[in-house]
Amino acid sequence: QVQLVESGGGLVQPGGSLRLSCAASGFTFSLYAMNWYRQAPEKERELVASITSGRITNYANSVKGRFTISRDNGKNTVYLQMNSLKSEDTAVYYCQGYSSWGQGTQVTVSS
Description:
With 111 residues, this protein is mainly β. The relative contact order is 0.32. The strands form two sheets. Strands 2, 4, 5, 6, 9, 10 and 11 form a seven-stranded mixed beta sheet that branches. Strands 1-3-8-7 form a four-stranded antiparallel beta sheet, with no helix packed on it. The model has no long low-confidence stretch (mean pLDDT 97). It is globular and about 40 Å long. A hairpin with a 4-residue loop joins strand 7 (67-72) and strand 8 (77-82). It has no helices and eleven strands.
């Protein structure tokens, strides 16, 4: 079955960095676009970044220049490098692809 497993979340100070990973299985990873979403408390889930099978990327305006999405098709993994983190980046981050969702990983930005 399809599985998406996120890792790499945690507590970081403002201005810090984190790298999220999402390991995929159960489908031909290299053929599909992959996305990172996030959901902050009492807010709707929003698309943060996406990467196509051809490695074309797209970002929400709020993270442009700070976040980088990438993929390693040999490892069936998509990454989200998050730099210059702000308190408003605090949310549960979800990996999405092949009509499936991961369980989410908490990112908390706080001093």
